Automatic annotation (TrEMBL):
<keyword id="KW-0472">Membrane</keyword>
<keyword id="KW-0812">Transmembrane</keyword>
<protein>
    <recommendedName>
        <fullName>Flagellar protein FliL</fullName>
    </recommendedName>
</protein>
<dbReference type="InterPro" id="IPR005503">
    <property type="entry name" value="FliL"/>
</dbReference>
<dbReference type="Pfam" id="PF03748">
    <property type="entry name" value="FliL"/>
</dbReference>
<keyword id="KW-1133">Transmembrane helix</keyword>
<keyword id="KW-0997">Cell inner membrane</keyword>
<keyword id="KW-0282">Flagellum</keyword>
<comment type="function">
    <text>Controls the rotational direction of flagella during chemotaxis.</text>
</comment>
<keyword id="KW-1003">Cell membrane</keyword>
<comment type="similarity">
    <text>Belongs to the FliL family.</text>
</comment>
<keyword id="KW-0966">Cell projection</keyword>
<keyword id="KW-0145">Chemotaxis</keyword>
<keyword id="KW-0283">Flagellar rotation</keyword>
<keyword id="KW-0969">Cilium</keyword>
Length: 141
């Protein structure tokens, strides 16, 4: 009886060792394929717009960089640079000083800018493969 239990444990352990390396390699391959490198595209030069604030004209300078994991999206953004820049200039110039004075306002503007870029890329490629938009500088005067 003891011999039967020992044989059963050895068979189970051997089966585990035979299956484990295959499972580990399959999981690693899928994870490596899913984890594409991050690609950053700075939208240079920085955006400079003016906007009204009660009785005075204010200026906003925003540096923008977009991030994607898809090389096709990078190319689509490069090809659509004038369209993207126009959309962002219109968005930035429609802001108010009060709306951008706090972090919540800046985050809202960042989300709106990301949506605008995603729409343009989606129109070009059929999918909105822009993962993030970052303000690399933000100056209001």
């Amino acid at each position: 009886m003891v011999l039967g239990v020992v044989v059963l444990v050895l068979l189970a352990g051997g089966g585990y060792l035979l299956i484990q390396p295959r499972t580990a390699h399959a999981g690693t391959g899928a994870a490596a394929q899913a984890a594409k490198p991050e690609l950053y595209l700075p939208l240079d030069p920085a955006f400079v717009v003016n906007f009204q604030d009660q009785d005075s004209t204010r200026y906003l300078q925003v540096g923008v960089t977009v991030m994607t994991h898809d090389q096709n999206a990078v190319q689509a953004m490069k090809d659509s640079d004038p369209v993207i820049r126009n959309a962002l200039v219109m968005l930035f110039s429609s802001q108010t000083y009060a709306g951008l004075s706090d972090t919540a306002g800046k985050k809202k503007l960042q989300a709106q800018a990301l949506d605008a870029v995603r729409k343009i890329v989606s129109d070009k490629t059929g999918k909105p493969d822009v993962d993030a938009l970052y303000f690399t500088s933000f100056v209001m005067q």
